[in-house]
Amino acid sequence: MTLAGISTQRRAEGNASPLIELTRATKFYGRRPVLSEVSLLVESGTATALIGRNGSGKSTLLSILAGLTKISSGTLVRYERRLTVGYAPEAFPGLKLPAEQYLLCMGKLAGLTSAAAEARVTELLEVFHLEEFRRQSMAGFSKGMLQKVNLIQSLLTQPQLLLLDEPMSGLDLPAQHTVIRLLQELKRRGTALVFSIHEPETVEALADNVHVLQAGRTVKIIYGQENMRVAPAAYIVCNNIPEQCKEDILAMPGIIFIHNEPEGASGDDLKVTIEAAAADSYLLRVLTAGGSVVSVEPCGGLSTGGLEQWMDPKPAKGGAAE
Amino acid sequence: MRALMVYLLRSYTASQRYFGPVAGTIIAVLILYSYTPNPVMNSYAATAIILFAGSAWMGLSFLNHEHPVQRQVTIVQAKSKWRYNLGTLLTLVLFIMLLDLLIVIYPVLTGHFDEPAGLYRMTLAFAGHFLLGLLGMAVSLYLQASWVPKTSYAAGLLLTVLIISIGANKMSALIPGPFVHLLLPPAAPVMDVLMNADSLPLMRVMGAFLHALVYIMLLTGFYLYRSSRMDDRKSL
C-alpha cells in the first residue's frame, strides 16, 4: 500500500491530519550518503517508530524532521505553518545549570508563562522522581537522570510533533513505563510521535507504524499494531454469535484488540486479534455459543515476520521499500 | 527573544567561559590606567582596541560555550534557527555594551585623566568602543566551532585577523590596490579618529564610524544568512 493510501485510510478511521511529508529525501554529509530516498508521512495522533542498526540514518531523519538538517534532494512539506515541535536528542549533555533552572528556561523559551512553566516543570520532575535533584547542577547527573531531564524538556508543552531519539536509553524500568504512559496520553490528545528505538516492547506499546532503516534506506514499513507484535498472535473473524454471548466472549483473557466495524457497515462479523496461546479457548467458546469461525490468520510473532527480526535487518536485495 | 537571551546569559555564566576574556580585558584596562594622569582620547583609543580584542575572544568563547546537542534543543525550543542566531548576537551585544560602559566610565569616575573628559568626548568614546567591540564580535562569528572545528586553527586565525586589523594602515600601505583599506577590518581607522578626535572635524570621525558600522553589518548580515542555512549537527 502507498503512503497516500495509508494516509487516506487513516483519515477515514479518525481525525489524523498530515503534519509533515518527506518524499524521496536524500541527505549527503560531504560525499557520503546517510539517507537515500526516504519517504515518510507524519500525521497527528499517530506514532511512527524508526528502527534499524546504529548508523542506519535514524537520527539524521529525526534531525531533518526537527528542521535542524537540510535535505540534499527530495521534498519536505510542512502542512502547518507554525508547527510546534518537541525534540529530545540522543546523548543529552550534562550542563552546569541546575535542572530546574534549565527546564524553566526551556519552558519560557517554548512560550510558556513563568507560572505555567513552573507548574509543568514541578509536575514532570515529580513524575520522573527528580524533585530532590531539582536544584543540583546537571553536571553530576547520571546518564538516566540526564535522559529524564532531556525528555522533560521535550514534554514541557504539548507539541504537535514530538521527535525522540532513543527515548528509553539509560532509563530504568519504572521510568520507561512512565514515558510510555505519557506518550500514549500525548498521542491520544493528537500529538504525532516519531521516535528511534531499539526496544521492541516500546514499539509494540506505542507505534502505529514502523520504518525499518538500513544504511540510510527504508527497507520495510510495517503498518498496523497487530503486524508488529512480538508475541505470536492470531487474527480471528467469527460471525453468527448470539448478542447475549458477545459480551462474555469479548471479556475473555488474551484479547489484544477488537476491530470495530466502521459506522454504517453491514454484517455481524466479530474481528479480534488475540494472543496465540488464548486462541484455542476463544474459538471453543465461540463455537459452543453457536457462532461460526470465518477465518483464523497468524499475525506478528517472531516466526511470522514480526518486529524483532527487523531490529537487526539483514542486507536487503536491492533495498526496496515495501 | 527575552527568554532566549536570559537562557543564554545563564548558560554562559554557568559555563564560566566568560572569565578569561572579561578578566583579560579588565586587567589590560587596569594596567593602562595604572599610571596617572592619562590623556583622554589617547587612552580611550587604546582601551577601544583592548575591547576589540576582548570582544573577539569573548565572542568565540560565547559562541562555543553551548554543547552542540544542547544547541539543537535550544534551536527547536526557540522555533527557528534564525531566531536563535539573532538571540546569540543580541546577547553578545548586551555583554559588549556593558563592558563598553564600564571601560568608558571607569577612568572618569576614578579621576585617571589629566583633564575633564566632557560629554562630547565620552559620547565619542562610547560609540568608538561599541563599534570596535561589535567588530571583534563580527570577526569571531566566522571562527566559532561550527565554522572552524579545530580550536587551535580558530585561535590562530583570530590572532592573525586581530593583528592585521590593528595594523591595517601599515598593511594597506604595503599591499597594492585601491580597496585594501576598505576590505581589512577597520579597527585602525576607528582607533586613529578616536586618538585625534580633539583636532579632527566631526564629519571625519563619523566617516570612520560609518565605515566600521557598514563593515560590521555586512559581516553579521552574511553570517545570519549563511548560518540559518547550515546544518546543526550533534557533533562538529
Automatic annotation (TrEMBL), chain A:
Keyword Glycosyltransferase on entry: no
Coiled coil location: none
GO molecular function: ATP binding; ATP hydrolysis activity
Pfam family, one: ABC_tran
Protein name according to UniProt: ABC-type multidrug transport system, ATPase component
Record's keyword annotation contains ATP-binding: yes
Sorted UniProt keywords: ATP-binding, Nucleotide-binding, Transport
Species annotation: Paenibacillus jilunlii
Domain ABC transporter: start-end pairs: 20-240
Cited InterPro entries: AAA+_ATPase (IPR003593), ABC_transporter-like_ATP-bd (IPR003439), ABC_transporter-like_CS (IPR017871), ABC_Transporter_VariousFunc (IPR051782), P-loop_NTPase (IPR027417)
TrEMBL record, chain B:
Transmembrane region(s): 18-35, 41-63, 84-106, 118-143, 155-184, 204-225
Keywords on record: Membrane, Transmembrane, Transmembrane helix
Name of the protein this chain belongs to: ABC-2 type transport system permease protein
Naturally occurring in which organism (per UniProt): Paenibacillus jilunlii
